Amino acid sequence: MKGIDEFKETKGRVLQHANNIEKKVQNIENAILVRPFDFSKQEIMGITEFSEFFDSYREKIIGELVKDYQNIGDTYLRSIEECTFKTNT
Asked: Which domain holds residue 58?
């Protein structure tokens, strides 16, 4: 019974980590990289200002997505390995 209980606990942790990975992947997949902009309500911008307006937003979002992607391996996959194989790498 102890072995079955340990297996159920491990399974629960693995499924929780898998769910977290799925959420991160969905977040990356559904990311909006082009800043929403209402052209009818804005003043005309110069090309440099216009470019910076969109580029700064895109860079910020991509930075956040890269962190999410890195967390998948650094946090979730490592945790799955540790609880499944009882290792501590």
From this structure: 2-85
